[in-house]
Amino acid sequence: MPKNQTDQEAEKKEYKDYSSLRAWQVGHEINLQLHAAMQECRSDQEARSWADSVLLSMRDSVVQIMEAFRKYPAAEKLKRYEASMYYANQAHYTLILGEELGFWSLSELISKLIEYERIVKSTSFHFLDKKEKKV
């Protein structure tokens, strides 16, 4: 059943800024938790460089979601979400590798990152549908 115009307007008003997006909220929460967890690694130079890599990748992932919120066409939003997935995957792999190298044990954060990746991916499908409809 197609949405009527008032339903569409209400849906648009629901997202006032990027911080109302579920993907951004989960990504931001992960960044805060990562930052706190990585503070423990700061004493070891090698672990610190790995931690900085994880934090940078995850930050870049969330920034791409913020950028996608701007008034871009669906194709540009899709590119931003794909970039967000790239950075999230980079953070995910670095977390796993850091765990295997013995720098940290953050299984709970890795699980949360998997949830974040799922949310970002499902949101990107929304923009993929819009892009295909315009073609």
Produce the secondary structure layout:
Blueprint: H1 5-14, H2 22-38, H3 45-68, H4 74-100, H5 107-134
Look up the CATH topology.
de novo design (two linked rop proteins)
Largest sheet report = none
Name of the CATH class: Mainly Alpha
Question: If you compute it from the alpha carbons, what radius of gyration comes out, rounded to the nearest whole angstrom?
Answer: 17 Å
Ranges where pLDDT stays below 50 over 5 or more residues in a row are: none
- Spell the H/E element sequence: HHHHH
Name of the CATH architecture: Up-down Bundle
General form: elongated
Average the pLDDT over all residues and give the rounded result.
86
Number-wise, the strands total 0
Please give the alpha-carbon distance between the first and last residues: 23 Å
Percentage of residues assigned to helices: over 70%
The tally of helices reads 5
Structural class: mainly alpha
**Total domain count:** 1
CATH-defined superfamily? 23S rRNA-intervening sequence
Strand content: under 5%
Detailed description of the structure:
This protein is mainly alpha-helical and 135 residues long. It has a single domain, classed as 23S rRNA-intervening sequence (de novo design (two linked rop proteins)), CATH 1.20.1440.60. The chain is built from five helices and no strands. Helix 3 (45-68) packs antiparallel against helix 4 and helix 4 runs antiparallel to helix 5. The longest helix is centred in the last third of the chain and has 28 residues, at 107-134. The radius of gyration is 17 Å and the shape is elongated.
Keywords:
135 residues, mainly alpha, de novo design (two linked rop proteins), 5 helices, 0% strand, elongated
